[in-house]
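Q: I have three molecules that I believe assemble together. Could you output structure tokens for the complex as a whole instead of separate predictions?
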Amino acid sequence: MQAVDGVDLELNPGEIHALVGENGAGKSTLAAIAYGAVHPDDGSVSADGVVGLVHQHFKLIDRLSVWENVLLNREPRRGWSIDVAAARARVRELGARYGLEADPDARVETLPVGIKQRVELLRELDREPSVLLLDEPTAALAPGEIASFFTTVQELAQRGTAILVVTHKLAEVIAYSQRVTVMRAGRVVASHLTGETSAEQIAREMVGGDVPALAARASTILAPLLALRGMSARSGTSMLRAATFDVRAGEIVGVAGIEGNGQSALADAIAGIVPFTGEMTFAGEPLRANETPAGRIARGIRVIPQDRRHEALVLNWDVRDNVALGRQRTLAMNRFGDAAREVIERFDVRPPNPDALAGALSGGNQQKIVVGRALASEPRLVVAYQPTRGIDVGAAALVQSRLIEARNAGAGVLLISFELDEIFAVADRILVIANGAFAGEFDRAKLDRGRIGALMAGNA
Amino acid sequence: MTAAFTRTRAFRDVVVVLVLVFGVGSVAMLLAHVSPVDGFAALFDGAFGTVGEVAETLVQTTNLLFPALGVALAFRAGLFNIGAEGQLVIGGFLAGWLGAQFPVAGYLAVPMVLLAGVVGGGLWGAIPGVLRARFGANEVISTLMLNVIALLLTTYLVTGPLQQGTGGGSETGPLPKAAELPALIPDTPLTWAFAIAIVLALVLHWVLQRTVFGYELRAAGDAPEAAKRAGIDLGRSALVAMTLSGAIAGLGGATIVAGVLHRFNTGLSPGYGFIAIAVALVGNLEPLWIVVAAFAFGILQSGAIGMQTEAQVPREVVSLIIGLVIVALAGRRVITALRST
Amino acid sequence: MNATTAAIAALLGLTLVKATPLIYAALGGVLSERSGVVNIGLEGILIAGAFTSVAVSGATGNPVLGALAGVVAGMLLAAVLAFAATRLAVDQIVAGTGINIAALAAAAFALVLIWHQPGASHEVPALGNTGEIVLIVLAFAVAGALHLVLNRTPWGLRVRACGEDPSAAESAGIDALATRFWAVVIGGAICSLGGVYLSLAELDLYSDGMTAGRGFIALAAVIFGRWTPLGATGAALFFGFFAALQFSLQRAGVPSELLQALPYLAAIVALAGFAGRVRAPAADGIPYVRP
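A: Yes, here they are, computed for all three components at once.
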């Protein structure tokens, strides 16, 4: 498989260069090649000085301290041992210089996401890179944090660092970059000075045409379905406090929020994975806190988990057996093949082969199977947790359209997403979640982006 | 077809096993000042030389097949049951002791003895299952401990309070004739235990591939988080899989008592429960391939005796080879899972 | 000194004797697991140390040389596991089980070749009382040293990083596979001293099965000690106490097999009570495969 093909890219000192493209276009591969983690089959990479890379998924070690993470493999020594005092001082000094303060002795796992991002950046800055690659650096940041993050990045650029920001957030590209390169299917398809282009033009270049339209939304009769009253739950580090809201049959309720603000606890409590306190009723019946996931499935509740590879699929099984997962008690085994073919056809899964191993499919096709099987048995409530994470625009549009069609057919849909654009495009009603609590509600017709962003950041 | 096969993992595994058997075997024989040709001739002669030796090879196959099927069942459910040895010993003990102490007449005698083995092994397997399901205790370490405890406990019982034997004391009294498994080939040690083991392999294959129970068990083993979200109770799955795994190993112990020794004796198993891990891995945790693997290891086990007596090569060399086979093949499932991602 | 004090002193002395091989094995396990490799093969490494030291002491007449050879053998066996666990990325639990079977068989095989008798070796020149005391004291010294190495040195930090997240460690320029390899091998050296102690200090011969599952108890001590050198040492002393208790109780007429089972039962109970309240290193037991 070739991820990147014949790419020319030049980064200049003092310049913020944006690299955009949809999922699978090859941007992360290109960043890895530039960093030296992947060797190109052909062509070359050259850089003056050290190249630093800030990963999309933090490469931080949770149970080590901040200084241990920042200075790992570059520890100051005193004789045979690490000079811990010098290490602390170095991290403090680095933080002061770049405005990225963090307690050197804090364990990383206890820090909020924004501070983890700082630690990640500090680790690269300690190496004094002349080129800094940032792979989707703002994925886990609140709107306010994003602005201050780019302030730091701009300062770095002013000091002469060449910066490449890999992203799919076009608003950030327009606001902060000087130059933008667009990739599609492993090739560079366009390169502009940012001032001479627009978000709309970049979007068309990314997709290679117009962005696919979503299914039309039909008028539906709203009926009570799921009601939460003061529901609290905890799943791992995710905490949800006193959630009170309704999801009615025939509507899509979007939960807008930044990753790590209680969304996992919400999804897991509804799925029956973790217990809850407070009240939750479904179709008029109270749900018991200790009811099993099997019980929730039997009621017609389907949860599309966030992590399709670990929480949804058995990667070393074929598509047929994966499509049956969750329905193994109700679907006869000799019907597994038919069920798989239905999902394959309705969701355009490629290859269209029930015998293909799930692990061998692309992320988009894996997700089609997960969403397809959730919608196949006429669910009454669908909880879709990041249903389009990491998949290409075409597959994402298909998944979103099928969710809208399920709503049109009378199902209730709870869409939990970290992508505001997705929520705006799909949801009928929007709830904002921050710090484990619900902070506001907006109707599709009366959106206030600025207000929603402020609420997501925890500013009431 | 043949070119394609030589590239498969199964083929590579066969090559690895053959290299280990003949390579390590040859080196060991040379160390014992025996020509490898003579040594392996003695080994194969010991395994196939006479009808009696062929029967002994199939007895060893049987004795390995039961615990290997048990190990495979647990592994498929994602549980490292390293405790087949202890489960086999406890099963054999309960079969031998109850069989001798409370003789049952007629056709029920054999089934009762085998049932005692199933119950004994099942209970011994359930302990780590409960410890894991209720307390989250790692089954690897608890099964390792329970192996040692099983041996100490049965030794204590047959030399102490439950001593029934007359000669030397580390065994129970003899089973009544009615409780002995009938021979499959007359005048050989091969009994119906062999047929039971083969049928069990077929049943297990069917259960794993064709039943909801098997489907859920495999899901729990291959992707526990996904299984949990699909309504599968992981704690219950662990308990059931460990109990069944132990029961199958315990049944194996009972067949050794009822078919070979006709009493329980603390020397019941020369490590069948450990060798079973190699058998299960070489058989790729698939019951039908495990039958083939058990036969291959049965040849080694039974030939080792001939090799020791005919060629004066200490029989432990076979265990050495088996240990190395386990190390070499320990990667199969994990590698498969990683490569598929 | 009255009889009770004497009995207590004897019990404590015996606790030290019984705990020493467990301490070595548990410390070897701690180092290995902090780097991310579960070492089920501790039992086999004990056997390698115990057997080789006796064989070499018998051949050379020099027990110190024997002890050194035992350590080398333990390192070599650990290297087999380390290679399989890093370069081959095999399942560590299964591979460790194979190591145990192979070591037991290899020792039994070589025993027959060398002494022409199954079961046990002849008596060989041993380390004696002085050697025994040195090895007991050394066990505690190694525990303290390992504590410092893991928590204060660059290498220790790297080992811990590999046990928590080898991928992140590699992104910081650490060779996670090599770090794990050497942690397992050095852990093997430490563990093998436990075997040397059993055969050449506590006794003066090797017999089949003499390690009697101590490697497995050491695994429980690693968990019970929360994967720390000092904690594991404490846990080994705890299990050593139960092993010592069996001799006192045996004199009181309790059957020996039941008493021998005591430390194993204690380990199971400790595990059940302790599991779920402790966290293993995050990447413990998970093979690392470079992307």
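A: One point stands out. The CA atoms of residues 91 and 117 of chain B lie 4 Å apart.
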